[in-house]
């Protein structure tokens, strides 16, 4: 009867704890962040602000440049780039931490077994076993459970889930950053190939000019100064062409590292830049909050910090621990597993801190300050994102105008060179005038190539600033965080540790 009453008492305590359980601390609300109705740099640009029905950026955003070599390289980033692999590993670690905190919802069960043989002293009074040698066979199990009365565990799990989602967003942000860096380096390398092609074509023209001046010198029409100037112009341009090899090699090495290869085993064939910048659908500023992985990571970090306030608040309340112990013990092996050998105990423990001289208050104040810092960082991330979009919209708009003006300058310089060359052949001017015209024409052509490279870099940067086709709906859900087999990867490549069979 006493055993029945004891069990009933425990069950009633457990039931009462579940009914009375509550979650202390503030419930999360997304912090307000400054947004605008539209992007300022779109005004007067002639670009159409994307509407919901417009085509949005795809996850494989680099395919809009229609470059098969770039497509092949980008596909290797997710699976081979080591920074991306490290970010994915951090996500898996954060997801495992969710499971660690969730385990606190359930009892901790331990089991033990052992055997000992001992002899008691004969000089011990009032002990029936004095002077005897006894065996001790024991096997038992212990179970302890702390009901989540005040939501400490719930808040910890809430924070761990938010932290894991932030880690998933960080992994996507790392992937997008590596993809954008690869595209930028690739177009820069192709731009150098285009500039080198330009210099090689110019070198061929300068060789003809040297031959022309030498023939005119032999004919007594030109001076040796004309020959020297033509040769100087040729050698200078050859040196400029050779110098581009340093930049190309460095970019090729950088691309190799981005795709997880050693520079010594990777090379890209020469192919001049032919791609044109793409204007990504910008959309409204408020949509950026859901499209940038770094904004999502900052916002999820705020959720985690908000949950930590609840954890600090729960420390003000007492903890209830329910424990039960049972097993079998005997001094004779033959009687070890019989019913009379059983033992057990169970009972609740209620414990709380009465006086800590402000320690809990300080912990809660620190948690609140950490939350305020997280909110400020979130808002700063949003502002930075808006600034990056505006910067690259402006860059594309201005560079487009600059490219048109530079093309006109190139055409004018070419016409001027043709006129000056004809006048030199007719003996109306010295070769110095030809050198000046050649230098002006080459400088303008190289400037045009430089602008083309900058336009491609700004186009890639705008896609990156807009999130690269990512959306906050891609964050892992609670189900995916608590069941790793069903979890989506934070990046676009399957993970070797978690890939489910098809």
Automatic annotation (TrEMBL):
The keyword rRNA processing does not apply. Gene3D superfamilies: Outer membrane efflux proteins (OEP) (1.20.1600.10). Residues 70-104 form a coiled coil. Residues 475-502 are annotated as: Disordered. The keyword Zinc does not apply. This is Efflux transporter, outer membrane factor (OMF) lipoprotein, NodT family. It is a lipid-anchor. The lineage of its organism: Bacteria, Pseudomonadati, Pseudomonadota, Betaproteobacteria, Burkholderiales. Keywords: Coiled coil, Lipoprotein, Membrane, Palmitate, Signal, Transmembrane, Transmembrane beta strand. It holds the Pfam family OEP. Belongs to the outer membrane factor (OMF) (TC 1.B.17) family. Residues 1-21 form the signal peptide. Transmembrane segments: none annotated. GO terms for cellular component: plasma membrane. InterPro entries: MdtP/NodT-like, OMP_efflux.
